[in-house]
Amino acid sequence: MGKRISRTVPVAHTLLGSLLAGASFSAVAQGQTLPAEALDWQAWSQDEAPQQLCRGRYVMPGYRLPAEENPETLSVETAEVDYAADGEALLRGDVVLRRGNTELQAERVFLPAERQQVDAEGNLAIRDGQALVRGEQATLMLNEDRASLRNSHYVLYEQHLRGQASQLEQTGESQYRLQEATFTTCDPGANSWQLVSSDIRLDQASGFGTARHARLQVKDVPVFYWPWLRFPIDDRRHTGLLSPSVSFSSDGFDYTQPFYWNIAPNHDATITPRWMSDRGLLLNGEYRYLLEQSQGLVEGGYLDSDGGTSSGDNRFEGDDRWYIDAQHAGTLTARSDYQLRYGAASDGRYFDDFGGEFGNSDRVSMERLAQVDYRGERWQLDARAQGFQRLEDPLSDTDRPFYRLPSLTANSDWQLGSGLYTQWRSNATYFWRDVDERRVPEREAAIGSRLHLTPAVGWRYEQPWGYIEPRTELWHTAYELDYGDRVTDRATSPTRSVAITSIDSGLVFERELELGGRDYRQTLEPRVNYAYVPRTNQTQLPDFDSRERAFSWDQLWSPHRFSGADRVGDLNRVSLGVQSRLIEDSAGRDRLTLGVGQSVYFSERRIDSEGDPDTLPPRPGEDPSVNPQSRYQATRDRSPLVTRLDWQISDRWSTGYEWLYDDEREQTERSSVDVRYRHPAGHVVNLGYRWEIEGFDPSVIPGDDGFRDYSREEWDLSLAWKASPRIDLIGRYLHDQTNNRPLEQIAGLQWNDCCYGVQLVWREWIDDNDTARVGDDFNDRGLFLRFVFRGLGGVGQEADGYFEQAIPGYRPTPL
Q1: In terms of Cα–Cα distance, which of 757, 747, 744, 730 is closest to 811?
Q2: How does pLDDT run across 233-256, given as a tens digit for each residue?
């Protein structure tokens, strides 16, 4: 062999640049396999391998030739070269050509005199930093967008993708054709699956590819066939079929096939037919749009004549079932936004029957809203018309929510210096609902307007060692009411004015502390809060949006016994509490927070949902329509003792605890404890216990859906264990100790492989409705299977979002 020589020759067009760009496709090719090393495959080291799904990765070796200053320059290196008189050149031996980031290696390269074509053959390899293409023979037209390779193999490094083609051609600018082609994301030598086609055409300009006579092979066994297939070859959105969803449950077979329609860069739609063997065809759709100053979403579903269920207990059988939810939001000015929304469903059980991800739905209402706001430097303004359809079936008149038609709000704050401040809160609302006013409690029978003004003045003095904050709010509320056909002697223009006074104060003591060789800062923070709300007659006031709040740690420090503005609970109490924190100096985080507090009452709390200041709730047994706990809650001398704990035991273990204990009756009113384990590898374990005494919420009366005439006790165990990088184990068991039954059981396995994933989950659950009536609970069970071909898509119902909700702390391995 002759000595090596090197030449640099300027040319007008890139060498193989277009060809290699065309390698970023999603489906490609078949033929004789190559050793993994020939595909630039690099196995993981023994230390790295246990943490990886794939056995290795594709890594481009270094360039054989250095980069030229001018990226248009063609560098050539060869062992032998023969020149003809007319300028033709034949390069033989170990030939290397480089231009820019593209490098060609071959045994023989022929360069015609006009330098418009390159013919290469023998152990051909083309690399550009993103892809590798190998073949036996290649013809490259340097002045045209044309090229051809025979018996080619290709690799995309970042996508972990490889394939083969008996013939790979560039037929025009960004146009490619592959014959007898395959595509897979599996490791070399491990064809768990591959897509095979006799003819694939790729169009980079449109971002699409088409394949004829395409078939999906699993372990070289054909499992699916497409006479013609269109697929995306880049990250742009494209019209086409999305991954289907298949599930089996006690209700039968359920198949969903979404279709995505890329209408325009700022408009798209998803049309999702869903076939349920026991009910029929449900057609779902979603339309999204993005404009210069606004965006929106319209979604809905329609089932023509519900076919019923296999159990035969569907009272909607034969009915049309549907829902619609349209949302639009935009910007008017830099300080003003607006929102529009309309939601409605054919019935309150629609989402229980059809709408849940993985058999569960968290929709409880459908909102109707028209709202505009303004955020000024001083004032915050809000105007809205708002209502809700409560998703509950059956739905009584008393449970129907009020519409706000409209509701106008104006709020502002002023800092006057030296800790002195004033606030203004105001709202005017017209309340309406379509019910028979003769069939609801008298206080809920009216519709009409409410003007609510709450100016406040306060002073906060704060130092590192503590603070004090006296504050007074004036609540003035005026109504104009209409009771319709309801016969009543209640006033139609009642008013109420009441002052709410409170003083909040606290001290902070600190000391340095060393525990277990670590430095900590321990605080001791006593707190005293006094609140006084005079007893005011509110029997003439309606009840549009008020509800008595359940007692908690936060209620120790709040003067407001009710939510909403229709009721102001009388109060004369002092709350005493102390909190201690253990702060880890090195990290600045709380390792331990422990608090205990209690309220001492100086008078009875006579104001309840009726608003009567002169009477107390009847004693238990005197009136069965009243919560039996109401009288005791109104007359007790002190609140339950509230204790809470939040302890970060170690970097992996933590616990939280809350306990409400009645030291008069020596019984627990409510308690909860949670123990949490978090491992850096992704292991998650949660154990929770919850107890709540009978009738704990005094604002709920027997007959209401939220009333419980039993002491609720539940256990909740959930875990997600990454047995290996390939195996995720998940499980949950939620037990209703009161009725001695499981509320939910989940057991699942997720197998994660380099080129595919499998998720198999069994779930059995009860929709409890949170009442003592066990007979109206809804039971279901199902086996859910999802199979994903990485880089191609998958089949099955996605359940990852539900797992994250049911198993706190769990982050599923993406499939």
Answers
A1: 730
A2: 666 777 777 767 776 666 678 888
CA of 799: how far to CAs of 246, 362, 657, 765, in Å? 12, 14, 30, 15
pLDDT of residue 770: 53
Q: Higher model confidence: residue 426 or residue 736?
A: 426
Residue pair 97/74 in contact by the 8 Å Cβ criterion? yes
* pLDDT (tens digit per residue) in 181-207: 888 889 998 888 888 999 888 776 776
Find the helix or strand (DSSP H, E) in which 633 lies.
helix 630-635
Q: Which residue has the tokens 């391998």?
A: 49
What are 668's strand-pairing partners?
661
Evaluate whether 509 touches 523 at the Cβ level (below 8 Å).
yes
Place of tokens 């395959």: 182
Give the list of residues 6+ apart from residue 85 with CB closer than 8 angstroms, or none.
none
Amino acid at 152: S
Closest CA to 356 of 281, 247, 261: 247
b/e map of 529-565 (b: 16 or more CB within 10 Å)?
Answer: bbbbbebbebbbbbbbbbbbbebebebbbebbbbeeb
- Measured between alpha carbons, how far is 5 from 297 in angstroms, rounded to an integer? 65
Task: Report the distance separating Cα 262 and Cα 207, nearest Å.
Answer: 12
HSE of 333 in the Cβ direction (CA atoms, 13 Å)? 7
Q: Which stretch, 61-70, 98-107, 334-343, 389-398, has highest mean pLDDT?
A: 334-343
Q: 277-284: long-range contacts at Cβ-Cβ below 8 A with a sequence spacing of 24 or more?
A: 277/251, 277/252, 277/253, 278/251, 278/252, 278/307, 278/308, 278/309, 278/310, 279/251, 279/303, 279/306, 279/307, 279/308, 279/309, 279/353, 280/304, 280/305, 280/306, 280/307, 282/321, 282/354
For residue 60, what pLDDT is reported?
Answer: 92
Closest residue by Cα to residue 598 from 538, 663, 537, 506? 663
- What the block records as the tokens of 519 is 């430095």
What is the Cα–Cα distance from 89 to 655, expressed in whole angstroms?
78
Q: List the alpha helices (DSSP H) in 140-219.
A: none
- Residues comprising the chain, all counted: 815
In terms of Cβ atoms closer than 10 Å to its own Cβ (0-12, 13-18, 19+), residue 725 is middle
Yes or no: say if 613 and 601 are a contact pair by the CB < 8 Å rule.
Answer: no
Q: What is the DSSP string of 216-248?
A: EEETTEEEEEEEEEEEESSSS---EE---EEEE
Mean pLDDT of the chain: 85
Q: CA-CA distance, 431 to 449, in Å (whole number)?
A: 6
How many Å from the N-terminal Cα to the C-terminal Cα in the chain?
Answer: 53
Instruction: Give the CA distances from residue 664 to residues 385, 510, 602, 697, in Å, rounded to whole numbers and listed in that order.
Output: 47, 34, 16, 18
The residue type of 725 is P
Determine the Cα–Cα distance for residues 275 and 362; give it in Å rounded to an integer: 22
